[in-house]
Amino acid sequence: MAHRLASKRLRSLDAFRGFTVAAMIIVNTPGSEEHAFAPLLHASWNGLTPTDCIFPFFIFIVGISITLSYGKLLATGRTKRELIGKTLKRAALIFLIGVLLGLFPDFDFTEIRWPGVLQRIALVFLACALLFLYTGWRQQAVIGAVVLLAYWVALLFVPVPGVGTGVMEPGRNLVAWIDSLLIPGSMWQGTWDPEGILSTFPSVVTGISGMLVGKLLSVASMPHERKVSWLYLGGLLAFLLGSMWGWVFPLNKNLWTSSYVLYTSGLAAMIFASLFFVIEVMGRQKWAKIGVVFGSNAITAYVIGGILPALLAGLNTWYVSHFIEGGNWPQVASLFWAVGICALCYVFVYLLYRQKIFIKI
């Protein structure tokens, strides 16, 4: 449903969301994955690249948005029952769009993949919204800590049939075993999926970390400058703790390890603090316009970015043969294609933004 937005939005959050979605589109749509720059590819297993930070950044932003938007809705008299209905409908719609996007353009239902990026966002949104409605921020912090510790213990000490305990190799760990038992249809890696069932639990904690930031932002009596200081301090502590935890529980996006949650949430908090300071405190907003435009219709931009490559498959084949494989700078040409796809997405959402149309999914 499209709505015309009248209320004031937090432009720094829109900008962060928008830049994150733009980065998602660019890393997802290279002209040729074989010729992409290394930072624009995911780490093969342990460790991470800048690309591995994009998805948790978006989930972190989802958490902030829940605290701010649901807090305002409750303050205007909306009941929890009404918000639960709204939450269930929105989560189901995002999940369905994710499934359909994975089926596009062939719609071969024999190859349906139930997990996915939008599907995980839908589940995290649902879990975090319910936590916001029925718990306080202290309880949320405790729940997050317990989940991260329990996940660590489970992956280290719960035995995997035929493999043993403590094995974290691709396809031979507890997460993959549970996926193979419970997920129907196709999976991204055949027998396991990076957006599988067990790894969704720590991804919810990424959302909780954003909710805690949202709680900080909602303190009306606190000056913006102090909020920025707390964001930097909390982000730095989470980043350092995640780095140290990574010594014994490796940073791993595919498993969404507990160390990865803290590391990426810490980075997200510090990056958002920078945007918040420049845009909200200093009032420098013009340079962030691209991010704000993307962020105002983020899911719409992401869906368009998922559809365009299939629609332009023939053009991509020609482009690869003439400019990537047949050129002198194949990685640059591959990136140029991705930026072009992102620019097309921007044109579409900019037209919506100009008309003050914000598609609420």
Automatic annotation (TrEMBL):
Bilayer-crossing regions: 12-31, 54-75, 87-105, 117-134, 141-160, 196-217, 229-248, 260-279, 291-315, 335-353
Recorded superkingdom: Bacteria
Pfam families documented for this protein: HGSNAT_cat
InterPro entries to which the protein is assigned, alphabetical: HGSNAT_cat (IPR012429)
Keywords, in A-Z order: Membrane, Transmembrane, Transmembrane helix
Stretches assigned to the Heparan-alpha-glucosaminide N-acetyltransferase catalytic domain: 9-154
Name of the molecule in the record: Membrane protein
The species this protein was found in: Parapedobacter defluvii
